[in-house]
Amino acid sequence: PNEGTMCFLDDQDHRIAHSYVLSNCGLLSEYERIFKIEMTQRHPRVRVEDVWAKYGDTFQDWFRDYVLHTNITDDIINALAFGPKRHVRHWDHYYVNGYNFHTYEYGKSKSTINYGVCVKATDGKEYYGILQDVIELCYVGDNRAYMTTLFKCQWFDSINGVNVHQAYKLVDVNHTRKYPQYDPFVLVSQVTQVCFTPYPMKDSRRKDWWAVLKMKSRPTIDAAEEEPPFQVDGNENPPSLTDIDIDDDADCISNQVHDVGEADDEEEGSESDIGDEDEVERSF
Fold first, then answer.
1. What is the Cα–Cα distance from 71 to 68, expressed in whole angstroms?
2. Is the dihedral of CA 95, 97, 98, 101 positive or negative?
3. Rounded to two decimals, what is the model's pTM?
4. How far is residue 200 CA from its own chain's centroid?
């Protein structure tokens, strides 16, 4: 199995990745409710429905302090409250959801394009981007370590950089127009694969535009799985790019559970076991 390599997250990515995991965790709905009540008490002029937009970036700090001062003993809650380790495992290719993904750096020189990604928001809007990295976060509790895997992506501008042809539902993206906020992480369970194809160079009007081709996932054989430590519910309080459409039974923290004493050791391979090397033929 491909066990990946180890690296360190910088402060910004560590905080943003942790925030994304918290905002997509159904176990924390009660803590989110308490957080909103406290924020409206501190800021009486702020409506409850506006709390997450205004103060959502402070939730992880509030959550850690709340768990610390209320002496909560639940192992998973404590692990989530104190955040993931900065030492993370990462891959440059990863098989998940029936797709063989490559990061851009790994796949840019290959004859295939497997680094295009798409996620769908709860309102049906789709976001397109390029896969930059695959990381596995490790949350360490008193008894166990809990793992979850994220894709780090460079998103295209969803307003000025995406064009949908309504008659045929064809999609183009402008690869020179990037999403203006730094919000790169999504759970691997939320992602489907797309291929980007440039228009012929003789069409100067479309030189910055790529056509989007949606790929079909490979069929997979269902295998018996452990009950995951906890699962994702649809999140009503997403940050700017995290209003992603999530199945009720999608995993936020995987069912790969290790003893704490093994948390720093090489874990067994995850879903990164790669099948056939290439899927999508490059058309340019």
1. 6
2. negative
3. 0.78
4. 33
